[in-house]
Amino acid sequence: MTATEKKLKDIVASWFYTEPLLFSAVCSHRLLENPALSIPFRTGNFHIEFCPEILGKMPQKLLEEYFKIEVYRILLLHPYARQPYNAKKMVLFLASDVTIAAMHRLPEGVFLSGVEYMKSRDAAYARALESPGKVFMYENLSFEEWYKKLLDLISETKNGQNAGSGDDASNLLAQADESAALWEENEEAQNKIKNEIQKAEVDEGWGGIGGELSRALTEEVDFSFDYRRALSKFRSNIVSQNRKLTRMKPNRRFGFQAMGSRYDRKANILIAVDVSGSITDESFNHFYKAIKNIFFLGIIEKIDVIFFDTNLKNLKPVTFKKKIDLGEIKGRGGTNFQPAIDFYSEHKREYNGLIIFTDGQGQIPVVKENGSNILWIISNRRDYEKCRQWINNLPGNKSTYLPF
Hints:
By secondary structure, this protein is α/β, with parallel strands linked by helices. About 45% of the residues lie in helices and about 15% in strands. Strands 8-7-6-9-10-11 form a 6-stranded mixed sheet, with helices on both faces. It has a 3-stranded mixed sheet with strand order 1-3-2. The protein has a two-stranded antiparallel sheet with strand order 4-5. Helix 1 (about 5-20) packs across helix 2 and helix 6 (about 115-120) packs across helix 7 (about 125-130). The longest helix is centred in the middle third of the chain and has 17 residues, at about 185-205. The chain is elongated, with a radius of gyration of 29 Å.
């Protein structure tokens, strides 16, 4: 192991406690020494290549900063993201530099090709950057938007429409071209990195990553899940159970040659509401609105509600009504899902499905029979990520969350 490689691995080891997301990102890649590089780092194909000669001359703090920036690039998926048709990798790299610089204040001495190109391209902006404490921000553009803008600027310069940049700019473009040599669209890498970002969101493992950058990372990962789709599918399953074939009503496509169908509107559902201490009135109100909007459409004849914490709070279900005040329910203890599951199982003939509203914090229940048609609605995304796997492993159980 060379001295430079040891320095980098020492930095990675320190990130285990202080920067868990950066640590995870680096561990998904292989550190490779490449003396032929004329740049500090380049990334791609699950590799982080580094030039020992360049890094060996850097103070430790500056070396760590360059290393961080390269890992930020990975987390933002820039080396692996879907590329435009006939993409210019050199311009993609410049766009990556500018995007990172707009989110992360660059310490003195850090040289990024994209930032330097913009300085050389726009003298007025270069003067603005010299103001002390000024954070780099040319325009509030996304990575893709920066790519298009830089592509236009470079094209203008080549066509002589803009005076310009000379040898310095040519050198910057050459460095960018070398830096992006390994960049290729890679869905496997995207998924792997997104999983690490999701884990950081759930575990609050952002470390020292700043607000702008952490927001950008969560935007790159699709956390969104339309709970209405899950409710609609649940409702469709209930309705399909009551489908009856008939020749009195023609099939829409084939007339009387095929059997038509009608649906019995006497479907009933049971809702089990967690009233333990971790459920807030606000989250319950969101849940109530979601249920009201999706089910009060004349399809479901009856909605019964039971409440539970460590046990059932009402042995006889109450009808889902216009206003339910959780303060009237004597709960706020711990959480045990089994009593609600058992009640539904014992009264299975009376109901076509069960919805459980909870934060998912409790012991995993036992579900004895398949085809249970149980939908868990978790009160927030973070708790959903913690419990969705064991819920979806239960027979006949699905899960979603409220995105409020």
